[in-house]
Write a structure and sequence with these properties.
The protein is mainly beta. Helix content is about 10%, strand content about 40%. A seven-stranded mixed β-sheet has the order 3-2-1-51-50-49-48, with no helix packed on it. Strands 4-5-6-40-39-38-37 form a seven-stranded antiparallel β-sheet, with no helix packed on it.
Length: about 1200
């Protein structure tokens, strides 16, 4: 153990930065836009017309209006779940006599081994395999740790600086080469370098990059055979046609969008060349072809013809689109005149059509900026930047189908710096500004079979300075606010004046054409340009995700490191996202976002389109203003590594970057480390701030990598179940009466995806198998309503999106639900607790739901078997004498038994059911669907260990006591197999019956002890000794004389392992108590104020395999942490480690996910914490 201290610290430093990144990532993502919807489930008593013998009517549907109630129009599912008519009781059959055991047969003799066959001849050598991909290039880069930053590391390669955080992908994008298109020695300060490299594209067949040189009206070709040293090949002069704006390549054809060089208001051209630079053709386009692209098949060339007006704004050509069929050369000019009569409707929808009102038509006002083509080549998406809209173009019918307004972004939902006169960078939250997205570049990617559009939300005002000209742009302090309106928003006259000061919104560039709702010259809304963000939209133009204020913070907070950005652009459009492209490597989709003013490239992980994750930020000291970005797939790259080509407008350079640098941990031994280790003698205690570990005999370190906070506090996170197919966890939330669906696709950033809310019912437990979710739901109605806690509950089935599938009736208070290992059935523990007056005590039962038919939607009550304990009524005396606790007032055995938790045997033949209050097991045969035995768990002799049973002894005083016994009374149970034998692990919490109508729980000093057994009774009953110990009136008086001959307590402050028949195999003894108190300085969640009760209180347990070992994970409800034991040998488990998480209180439900089912290939432990209402995700590091 001592030899691995350094390795342990390194591992925990790596993972501590992972969590820190997760926490910061959550903070950043809180400012991003995503939508959580709620499905409502309503239960009500069924009418006789629905159910002749009574039952429940269940409605379900999406809460579309968000009012928390299920209206008739929102109901999409209805089911009447009816009670059956009561049948006559059958007569009890006579018990048959047990037959005698037959004699064992003799073992047969072993057969002799057969002779080995002769070796066959060697086969011929196979063909050589294909060459593997080139390894990553070595780079002369250094990793520098950042402290007190949202970044963890800067990777400094000299020519590039890459800013990483704790959750960044392993490989870092760095510059590996560059090309200067601008003249040697040009002065950027005098704009001498600008315009020589604006748009870049790549031909894989020839390893050639083509870039647009607007200064020389040319397209230049450079060889990337060696991307580290690109070389110029050829210049294609297109000046005879005009100025090139855009370029694209497909199937050996180079297409160029070229504006008319002699008349800006005349049609331009699409020129085509071979990739060898040979002219092919010239096709007439519309006015100002600004962007060109191919369909994925290469069959068509598309150009966006912007049709900008002249500077006087007295000539305004129509915006249009040109489509060229490559094979035939057929040209189709597509105009937008069909929308001319829809001007008012489009403006009402939010499309900006304000310029030159009364003169320009809709077709003239629309200015196509950029095009992205759908994966199936059926649709083109057109960005109308100045119009703040998308056009959706049908490539089969060659017509514009619709124009979709993009709306505005509410800056009050984030924190921004919107002034260049506030003395630096000063983020202000809640500023009343709406800003238009107005993207420049757009790109498309496909996820889960759906197309998504990514936009770089630059923003662009119309500013033409001729005569008469036109501008929609001004400064905030030039606006006249509608005083009455703004006063109603909470801004009095003084506040309105202050709002428009230079250091606030006075310097912000705003639109005077937007925000004046009634046209009276007074603005009800302050509207800016661009959203300072990247946005993801679905194929219908609906917003899916926005980066919020993240880019502003990432590019400004640590400006001393990010040399390209200054606060001088905050009044304009901030970092100004301009270019964007997408690409995949290592199985992950990424977006690459060029920030024109900040001067770098942001990388975002697109794995979940509704939750894109910032990965890293690359900046370049020698490259200014990235404009055009092109992703080169690894399969097309000369290095067999992906490349990103970045054309930088102001510097006139091209940067070539690639993910070839493998970053090292952001801390190393001896540096300023986030984790502190202390050798306490017995164990190594490690404090990482967010996590405290006490290490046993282990080289595996379970570490917090992600967390989810419901924000609702106690009860909002109790039980969780994970679905491998959807990478979702389903969490019981007792606060909202719901199942919360968490997206776990990125374990470092789980988030609430959907809420499944149940009205008039209380979800107690959840399990999932192959995409089918089962929920145990108890009643919450008044007594006599038929829907109370003492009435029959339900098992509800949903798909992983929260859509209801079916419902069946269970027993009273269904408290735990689990699938059989093969998923062909569900077993439910119906606890059957009495009411508080103890006047109604329903039977405890089990419910089995047969799913073997394969169609959960077709379930009926005929597929349900209610399993009771009636057959054991005649064994009441025998069971009681064996130690099964049956003592409820006026209750028979079936009513007294309370099933709490279930564990299935891994082979699916049996289930072991915990009867917690009864301190017993019930074994269930799953083939006959019957209880085959009830077994007492016995008691634990506390004289065999050292314990503290008082909360009034001024600390922790471990002692040995005679004649005190603990009843295991476990809550959770889990199973595993070793050597073909099934074992069960229990968390021995303990639980008393404590109702207004009946309570067994008292303090020991309320009882009398037998003088012969306890001669020092007076001392024992002192508060600082045993007087405060919680005990029971139902146990300990063996001779019935009214005094206790031994003392019983609840739980055993331990976890235990049992065999398949319920016989004890191993118990952790006093090790938990000793561990908690000996490391109290490190385990700050534990205090001695629970010693009189049940101590650390083991509550949850789950078993899982990792690294070739079987581990038991035990949640300690009161200590607040998780014990890990290696239980590979059930007779001799080994303490592995104890994990305490200060921000997570009272672990309740533990769910183990194997490496095979985990979204990132590493095993996961998901822990739901009841008191804090949080979920913690832990993963192992070696």
């Amino acid at each position: 153990m001592r030899r691995s201290l350094a390795l342990l610290l390194i591992a925990l430093m790596i993972t501590s930065t992972t969590l820190a990144g997760c926490l910061e990532g959550n903070e950043d993502n809180d400012d991003q836009t995503s939508v959580v919807q709620t499905t409502l489930v309503s239960l009500e008593g069924a009418s006789t017309s629905d159910c002749a013998n009574g039952g429940t009517l269940i409605h379900s549907g999406l809460d579309a209006d968000g009012d928390g109630t299920l209206s008739t129009s929102e109901i999409t599912f209805t089911q009447a779940v009816c009670d059956g008519a009561a049948g006559a009781d059958g007569s009890s059959g006579a018990d048959g006599t047990d037959g005698s055991n037959g004699a064992d047969g003799a073992d047969g003799a072993d057969g002799s081994n057969g002779a080995d066959g002769s070796n066959g001849a060697d086969g011929s050598n196979g063909a050589d395999g294909a060459d593997g991909a080139d390894g990553a290039d070595a780079t002369g880069c250094s990793d520098q740790a950042l402290h007190d930053s949202q970044y963890s590391t800067i990777v400094d390669c000299g020519s590039s600086l890459t800013f990483r955080h704790h959750d960044s992908s392993m490989l870092t994008w760095v510059e590996i080469g560059s090309f200067q298109a601008s003249p040697e020695g040009c002065d950027m300060g005098e704009d001498e370098c600008e315009g020589y490299a604006e748009i870049v594209t790549y031909d894989a067949a020839s390893n050639t990059a083509f870039y647009v040189n607007a200064v020389d009206s040319s397209v230049d070709m450079i060889s990337l055979d060696d991307p580290h040293a690109p070389s110029h090949i050829q210049t294609i002069d297109v000046s005879s046609y005009g100025e090139p704006n855009s370029i694209a390549i497909s199937n050996g054809v180079v297409a160029m969008a070229v504006a008319n060089g002699s008349d800006d208001m005349a049609n331009g051209h699409i020129l085509t060349y071979s990739t060898a630079g040979v002219f092919l053709n010239a096709f007439e386009a519309g006015v100002l072809p600004d962007m060109v692209t191919f369909t994925h098949s290469g069959d068509y060339i598309l150009s966006a013809n912007e049709g900008q007006p002249n500077d006087d704004y007295d000539v305004d050509p129509e915006g249009s689109m040109t489509v060229v069929e490559v094979a035939t050369g057929t040209v189709t000019q597509v105009d937008f005149t069909s929308f001319n009569d829809q001007r008012a409707a489009l403006i009402d929808a939010g499309v900006r059509l304000y310029a030159n009102p009364g003169s320009s038509t809709v077709a003239q006002d629309l200015e196509p900026e950029y095009i992205a083509v759908s994966t199936d080549d059926s649709t083109a998406y057109i960005a109308f930047q100045e119009n703040n809209a998308f056009g959706i173009f049908d490539l089969e019918d060659m017509e514009l189908d619709s124009i979709v307004a993009l709306g505005t972004k509410d800056y009050s939902e984030g924190c921004y710096d919107l002034s260049d006169r506030d003395g630096g960078v000063e983020f202000t939250c809640g500023q009343p500004v709406s800003s238009m997205y107005m993207p420049d570049a757009i790109a498309l990617f496909n996820s889960g079979g759906n197309d998504y559009i990514v936009t770089a939300n630059e923003g662009d005002g119309r500013e033409y300075e001729g005569e008469p000209g036109y501008t929609d742009e001004d400064r905030g302090d030039d606006l006249t606010l509608n005083a009455t309106y703004w006063s109603e928003r909470g801004y009095d006259a003084a506040a309105q004046t202050e709002l428009l000061l230079d250091e606030n919104l006075g310097r912000l560039k705003v639109s005077i054409a937007d925000g004046d709702h009634d046209g009276d010259g007074e603005h009800e809304e302050i509207v800016g340009y661009g959203a300072r963000s990247m946005t993801i939209w679905d194929a219908n133009g609906e917003l899916v995700f926005d980066t919020g204020d993240q880019i502003s913070h990432l590019t400004q907070t640590y400006g001393e490191y990010i040399n390209g950005y200054t606060a001088s652009r905050n009044d304009d459009k901030g970092a100004e996202p301009e270019g964007v492209t997408t690409g995949s490597y290592d199985g992950t989709d990424y977006a690459f976002l060029g920030l024109e003013r900040a001067g770098g490239v942001m990388v975002y992980d697109l794995t979940n389109p509704s939750r894109a994750m910032f990965d890293q930020y690359i900046t370049f000291p020698n490259h200014v203003s990235p404009e055009g970005l092109t992703f080169v797939d690894a399969s097309d790259s000369p290095t067999n590594q992906p490349l990103l080509l970045v054309a930088n407008e102001v510097s006139g350079t091209i940067a070539i970057i690639s993910p070839v640098h493998q970053s090292v941990p952001s801390h190393a031994p001896g540096d300023d480390q986030p984790c502190l280790a202390s050798d306490t003698g017995a164990h190594l205690a490690i404090d990482c701030g967010y996590q405290l570990n006490v290490m046993g005999d282990s080289d595996v370190h379970w570490t917090l990598v992600g967390q989810y906070d419901s924000g609702l506090g106690e009860g909002a996170s109790e039980i969780s179940a994970y679905d491998a197919g959807s990478h979702r966890s389903f969490v019981v939330n007792a606060v909202t009466g719901s199942i919360d669906i968490l997206d776990m696709s990125n374990p470092t950033d789980p988030y609430l995806l959907h809420r499944l809310s149940i009205t008039n019912g209380e979800p107690n437990s959840v399990d999932v198998h192959n995409g089918l979710v089962a929920v145990a739901v108890a009643g919450v109605g008044e007594e006599g309503s038929g829907m109370s806690k003492q009435d029959a509950g339900h098992v509800m089935f949903f798909d992983t999106d929260g859509n209801m599938v079916s419902t069946v009736i269970a027993g009273a208070l269904p408290d735990m639900v689990t699938f059989t290992p093969d998923g062909n059935g569900v077993l439910v523990a119906n606890e059957g607790e009495p009411n508080d007056d103890y006047t109604i005590d329903p039977e405890g039962t089990l419910t089995y739901v047969d799913l073997s038919g394969g169609d959960a939607a077709a379930l009926s009550q005929a597929d349900v078997t209610q399993i009771n304990f009636n057959a054991f009524e005649s064994q009441l005396t025998t069971l009681t004498q064996s130690g099964v606790r049956i003592f409820g007032p006026n209750a028979n055995l079936s009513e007294d038994l309370e099933p709490e938790y279930i564990a299935m045997s891994p082979d699916g033949t049996h289930a072991m059911v915990v009867l917690q209050e009864n301190n017993a097991f019930a074994k269930v045969d799953l083939s006959s669907l019957s209880v085959t035995s009830i077994v007492s768990m016995g008691m634990k002799d506390y004289s065999l260990g050292m314990y503290d049973f008082s909360d009034r002894d001024d600390g922790v005083n471990l002692q040995s006591y005679n004649n005190i016994f603990g009843m295991p009374m476990p809550d959770a149970i889990s199973s595993y197999t070793v050597g073909g034998q099934t074992y069960y692990v229990t968390a021995n919490e303990g639980d008393a019956r404590d109702y207004d109508g009946y309570s067994e729980e008292v303090r020991l000093d309320d009882l009398d002890l037998d003088d012969l057994v306890f001669p020092n009774e007076a001392d024992l009953l002192e508060d600082e000794s045993l007087g405060r110990l919680k005990t029971t009136t139902t146990c300990g008086d063996t001779d019935g004389d009214g005094d206790l001959d031994f003392i019983c307590s609840y739980g055993t402050r331990s976890f235990s392992i049992w065999d398949s028949n319920g016989a004890l195999v191993w118990d952790s003894g006093d090790s938990i108590s000793a561990l908690m108190v000996s490391h109290g300085e490190y385990i700050n969640g534990y205090t001695q104020n629970r010693n009189d009760d049940k101590g650390a209180e083991p509550e949850g347990v789950v078993v899982g395999e990792a690294f070739g070992k079987t581990y038991a994970f035990v949640g300690l409800e009161r200590s607040g942490g998780i014990l890990v034991y290696d239980v590979s040998d059930p007779t001799a488990p080994v303490f592995d480690q104890y994990i305490y998480l200060p921000d997570h209180v009272s672990p309740e439900g533990l769910d183990f996910i194997s490496a095979a089912d985990s979204p990132n290939g590493a095993a996961m432990l998901v822990v739901a914490h009841e008191v804090s209402g949080t979920v913690a995700i832990l993963q192992p590091f070696v």
